[in-house]
Amino acid sequence: MSGEKDLEQIKREAAQKAKELAKQRQAAKQAGEGNDPKEVADKVAEPEAKETEAKAEAPAGDDAELAKKKAAAAAKAKAAALAKMKAKEQSGEAPEAKEEEVSAPVEGQDADLAKKKAAAAAKAKAAALAKMKATGQTEENAEAPAASSSPAAADAPAGDDDDLAKKKAAAVAKAKAAAAAKRKAQAEAAGEADAPAGDDDDLAKKKAAAVAKAKAAAAAKRKAQEAAGEADASAGDDDLAKKKAAAVAKAKAAAAAKAKAAGGGGSADDEKAKAIAAAKAKAAAAAKAKSAAGAKAGADEPVEEKKPSPNQPYLDKYVKAITDNLGDDILEDSYINPLSKDVPTLVAKKESYYRLAEFLKYNELLGFDYLSELHGTDFQTHMEVYVHLYSYKNRQSVALKVKLDRDQPAVESLANLWAGANWPECETYDLLGIKFEGHPDLHRIMLGEDWVGHPLRKDYEPYDVEV
């Protein structure tokens, strides 16, 4: 509130002094027609300059000096204008003098009004600056409220400097807007350039990844083959792979150039299909090369010799004893069965089956006195009887087999040699239909005697489907 009161008071004082100056100027004008116009102007401007300097003493520092310079310049300009007017009046041009005399009061009023506005603006700025400095604000923030609070400053014309400042500000704003638009356009262009442009960029990335993977795989394969002593073969495979990759790359480059020449023809689906086909071809070539390399490595690697079974000496012992006592035409085959704990296996001919079983039991060197298992199997091409024997004396085992005709499977019974063969032979007869000749009581033990067929045969068809 105190600031506003001071401003109003300053305005009133400025108006009063302006009136007094106008009266003095009119008096000097009437009484000093014979005096030098320059002296009259200096006399009129002298009190104004002094008053302006006195008013400008309020701002402190650089602001005060700037205000003084502005006030002095304004006073000198006004004094020069008054001197020019006086010179025209005394030049003897009557019509112009009359027109100037008629318009002099108006021009004097305009000059007085300009003086009042300038003085009021200077005082308002000085007061505002002093107030802002007291509150710790900057000069720029102080000038804005002073200008806005002063109606005299608002009414004052901006002048060429203001126009130039406005033009500069507008130019700066336009330049900033143009720079921002350019930056935005560059960012969008960079984003579009970085992002994959359609399927072509995706395909390029896939190609690059596939080439990198192929190179890594080739390097790993080369190292492995060099460690295994196959550097030459690896070089050959790598050369072939390189040639294939180069051919594929050339074909793709040609296709891309053709598509580009045609104006980017071809849909995204076609590009995807091409990429998929190329990937499949690469995968197939890689698989083929890998399989060929594996086969070659397998061929070059020495075949690991199979270690003999620990039961091989027992089998040799049994075969030697049989051939020495019964002859070479007793056995059809002999081997170690790896699927059954490497048990020594003897395959007897049908006509020598019972005779071989009897020899295995009663021979003093062998002594297989226990029959632990007997069963039959249908192989569709033939029937087979399997007998497992054990020697408690030697703590050794042997398997005895015999192959039979499938249409009429029949063989001698071992129930007279081992009582444990009685029930297993009856079971084999019941389920497979193998007849054991010489059995004391061969009959069905699971199914009834009136049952039709044998359920463990591969061609078994139930007589009564509801059962």
* Terminal CA distance: 119 Å
Structural class: alpha/beta
Shape: rod-shaped
Helix content: 55-70%
- Quick one: how many beta strands? 7
Strand proportion, as a percent range, falls in: 5-15%
Q: What is the chain-wise order of helices and strands?
A: HHHHHHHHHHHEEHEEEEHE
Could you describe the largest sheet, including whether it forms a barrel?
A: 5 strands, mixed
Q: What is the rounded Rg?
A: 63 Å
Mean pLDDT: 73
**With helices defined by DSSP (H or I, 4 residues minimum), what is the helix count?**
13
Q: In order across it, which strands form the biggest sheet?
A: 1-2-5-4-3
Uncertain parts: 52-61, 93-107, 137-158, 193-198
Describe the overall structure:
With 467 residues, the chain is α/β, with parallel strands linked by helices. Among the domains are: 2-156, no CATH class; 312-437, Beta Polymerase, domain 2 (2-Layer Sandwich), CATH 3.30.460.80. Helices cover 65% and strands 10% of the residues. It contains 13 helices and seven strands. The chain has helices spanning 2-31, 37-56, 61-90, 94-135, 139-149, 151-155, 159-194, 198-227, 231-261, 268-300, 312-326, 353-362, 422-432; strands at residues 331-337, 343-348, 370-378, 383-391, 396-404, 410-412, 435-437. The strands form two sheets. A five-stranded mixed β-sheet has the order 1-2-5-4-3. A two-stranded parallel ribbon has the order 6-7. A hairpin with a 4-residue loop joins strand 3 (370-378) and strand 4. Helix 1 runs antiparallel to helix 2, helix 4 crosses helix 5 and helix 8 (198-227) runs antiparallel to helix 9 (231-261). It is rod-shaped, with a radius of gyration of 63 Å. The two termini are 119 Å apart. Mean pLDDT is 73; it is low at 52-61, 93-107, 137-158 and 193-198.
